[in-house]
Amino acid sequence: MSRILVVEDEAIIRQSIRRLLQRHHFDVDDVDNIDDAKNREVSDYDLVITDLRLPGGLGTDLIACAGDTPVLIMTSYASLRSAVDAMKMGAVDYIAKPFDHEELITAVKTILAEARVRQQQTAAVPATEAPSAPAHPASDTTTTKRNNGIIGSCDAMQLLFKKVGKVAPTDATVLILGESGTGKELIAKSIHQSSRRADAQLISVNCAAIPETLLESELFGHEKGAFTGAATQRQGLVEAADGGTLFLDEIGELPLEAQARLLRVLQEGEIRRVGSVHSTQVDVRLIAATHRNLKELAARGDFREDLYYRLNVVELRLPALRERDNDVVEIAEFMLKRCSKKMAQPDMRFDQNAINAIRSYQWPGNVRELENAVERAVILADENNINAELLGIDLSPDRYLSPAMRENLIERPAQEYSREAPTEPQQGDLSLDDYFVHFVLENETRMTETELARKLGISRKSLWERRQRLGIPRSKKK
Q1: For the domain 3-124, what is the CATH superfamily, name and number?
Q2: Nearest Cα residue to 467 out of 451, 449, 455, 454
Q3: Are 185 and 289 in contact, with CB atoms under 8 Å apart?
């Protein structure tokens, strides 16, 4: 039974967490301040769950005395900056309040499973021999913008790189979640290249691209005569990845029958070819990815729940491009340079209007859409400057502002805005604040707050906060 120490100064929250963990068969101790926590042998616990801000200090103060015991930070101040700072100091992960019970339990089980894998690998190394470094060690992700070629300066990507650096040297199964076009396969390659399996093969399979009738044969192989057309024995892709890494993209599209076979690979480390009565042992590290919500699919019976929990040992979430702040411009400029070189064009650059458009657009197709836009612009350009028109970006009002840009609206004095009907702004003079104020004042009499927020692509809470900051009180509908 795993021992967990909970450090939380709010009695109701502390007691609730203790009861929740005890219901899931964990041995739990709890204290309400830093000093009491430090008076215990923190390193004797399997996990420490601590609030960030506590009487007597910060929860991160416990990291130094925790030794190899992982520390999970809870914070009501759910900014990525505080999370990144905590991870830099050695926290294994963070969870933002308020969180639901299932979210906490999933995080706890994931951390403990990962810790067990590390302990097993450490135990497997002879005491007289120091563990060897990975063939392609992960870069210092807290100070560099790239991780194995992946561009990412924003807090969300730095946090992701930190997790990749932790999980890559292990053999833990990884589930990568993110919208289509966000670069899930690049993350899988980064994990493989930084693992002890880097010299072996990485086999990538798009489960959505293989016909359902052929999928089991492609993945697990078949014997001669197993079905019509099986003229010879064939090795499957899982077996081909023996000793290396298997990356299953769009795993949410995997049929239930194939899911059962994959579960056996994870549980027993063996496969059985279609038409065979014998099993074959395989040593494969599995990385899966999907843009779908596997938890919801499992609840509907469209995905095996036991397989979901086997896959979700370590979960990595890739942010959408619209959530990555200034990364989008850096990525676009990198793509422009690469594309210009590929097409034997002189070095090109974006003009200021193009850069503003790139920052403002929401990029529903993510990096893939950005790459297509840049390539199209290079092909159509008559000179070295790339303008916004060549990018072919749709900047209609519904898609003009990205959430990341709204988070960074430049503050202006509230008295600059009046309750009078707004005048139509001139083309080219429309600032981000101007657009927000104009849209709200023009539409609030015929839209509910929910509809306004949806049109702007933000939450009702964010809409209320922008109103307060920009001095736009809600109108009184007659």
Answers
A1: Response regulator (3.40.50.2300)
A2: 449
A3: yes
Q: 3-state DSSP: the chain helix, strand, coil percent, rounded to 5?
A: 45, 15, 40
pLDDT tens digits, 193-244: 999 999 999 999 998 888 877 888 889 988 888 877 778 888 889 999 999 9
User: Residue 42: which residues within 8 A CB-CB, separation 6 or more?
Assistant: 5, 48, 62, 65, 66, 67, 69
Question: Helix crossing, 212-220 with 256-268: angle to 10°?
Answer: 20
pLDDT at residue 143 in the model: 34
Every domain of the chain and the residues it spans: 3-124, 146-319, 322-399, 409-470
CA 167 to chain CA centroid, nearest Å = 14
Distance in angstroms (rounded) separating the CA atoms of residues 374 and 367: 10
Residues 6+ apart with CB under 8 A from 448: none
- Angle (CA) 396 152 317, round 5°: 80
* SS3 of residue 48 by DSSP: strand
What angle do helix axes 11-23 and 101-124 make, rounded to 10 degrees? Answer: 60
Are 3-124 and 146-319 in the same CATH fold? Answer: yes
The 3-state DSSP class for residue 476 equals coil
Dist. CA 437–CA 440, nearest whole Å = 5
Q: What is the pLDDT of residues 375-392, one digit of tens each?
A: 999 999 888 899 888 998
What is 322-399's CATH topology? Helicase, Ruva Protein; domain 3 (1.10.8)
CATH number of this structure's domain 146-319, picked from the four choices 3.90.920.20, 3.40.50.300, 3.40.50.280, 1.10.10.10: 3.40.50.300
Instruction: Please give the DSSP secondary-structure letter assigned to residue 422.
Output: P
Of 120, 108, 7, the C-alpha closest to 66 is 7
Q: How many helices (H) and strands (E) does the chain have?
A: 20, 18
